[in-house]
Amino acid sequence: MPPKPHRVLLDRVSVYADEAAAFMRRRRVSRRPFARLYYPHGRSADHAQDSRSGAELFVAAGRLIEVAGKKEKG
Amino acid sequence: MTTVMIQEARARVTVGIFAHMPDAAATAPLSGESADGALAFLTEMSPDLRGAAILGAEGEVLAATGDEPGRWGEDAAALFAVADGAEGAPVEQVHIATEQGEVFAVRNAGLAAVAVTDRFALASLMLFDMRSALRRLASPNFGGSEPPKSRKGGD
């Protein structure tokens, strides 16, 4: 007996949700800090944390994070 | 002959227009109220947002969250200075992800916005919202009472 059509749809949605959750989990685990600059006309450049410009960018970003403070929960 | 004269006149007049036309986005006075409106839009649209500031053409703070608007101005200026100096060219957007949070900075229409979010905020949406808020703020029709259009589907 074939499954009801809505069951097929639900299963498919569940599979997509599982895939997305796995992707987000992997992203959280594997993501490293980065500094990315975007220029006009779509050009972008990554700056490694151990480069001089990268280190300066991380210091400047750290100050802003400090100013923003912690998010109030609720 | 007539065509040539018209072309000459147009060239002369056009040059005059552009010479005297101020850059509306960069010079129009923006009220703190409209900047507050744009900041409220950003806060509403981004659940991951911890804090943000909107800066004017000269780097002055038009609106900021928290109690230290002056520090937002200084630290945002420092970030843009470092970013511009990295390759010797002015940046349009900055995205820095650290263990403590993420920093976004956008320049648009003569204004700038800086935002700090929790980790793993969706960068493309965040940058889109910031650009959208700045563009709206710089438009002459924006008076602070009309919030930028929501990207939420329900309304």
Summarize the structure.
The complex is a heterodimer of chains A (74) and B (155). Chain A has two helices and two strands, in the order αββα.
Description of the molecule:
The complex is a heterodimer of chains A (74) and B (155). By secondary structure, chain A is of the alpha+beta class. In chain A, strand 1 and strand 2 form a beta hairpin. In chain A, strands 1-2 form a two-stranded antiparallel sheet. In chain A, 58% of the residues lie in helices and 12% in strands. The longest helix of chain A has 26 residues, at 5-30. Helices cover 46% and strands 19% of the residues of chain B. Chain B has helices at 2-20, 24-27, 32-45, 69-87, 123-138; strands at residues 49-55, 61-64, 93-97, 102-108, 111-117. A five-stranded antiparallel sheet of chain B has the order 2-1-5-4-3, sandwiched between helices. Chain B is globular. Residues 9-27 of chain B have low confidence and may be disordered.
Overall mean pLDDT of chain B stands at 79
- Element string of chain B (H = helix, E = strand): HHHEEHEEEH
Distance between the termini of chain A: 49 Å
The rough form of chain B would be described as globular
Radius of gyration of chain A: 21 Å
Could you give the order of strands across the largest sheet of chain B? Answer: 2-1-5-4-3
Strand content of chain A: 5-15%
Q: How large a portion of the residues of chain B is in β-strands, by DSSP E?
A: 15-25%
| Rg of chain B | 19 Å
The CATH homologous superfamily of chain B: Dynein light chain 2a, cytoplasmic
Total beta strands of chain A: 2
Order of helices and strands of chain A: HEEH
Biggest interface, residues from each chain: A-B, 30 and 36 residues
List the helices and strands and how they pair.
The complex is a heterodimer of chains A (74) and B (155).
Chain A (H helix, E strand, L loop, with lengths): L4 H26 L3 E5 L5 E4 L4 H17 L6
Chain B lengths: L1 H19 L3 H4 L4 H14 L3 E7 L5 E4 L4 H19 L5 E5 L4 E7 L2 E7 L5 H16 L17
Antiparallel strand pairs in B: 1-2, 1-5, 3-4, 4-5
Helix pairs in contact in B: 3-5
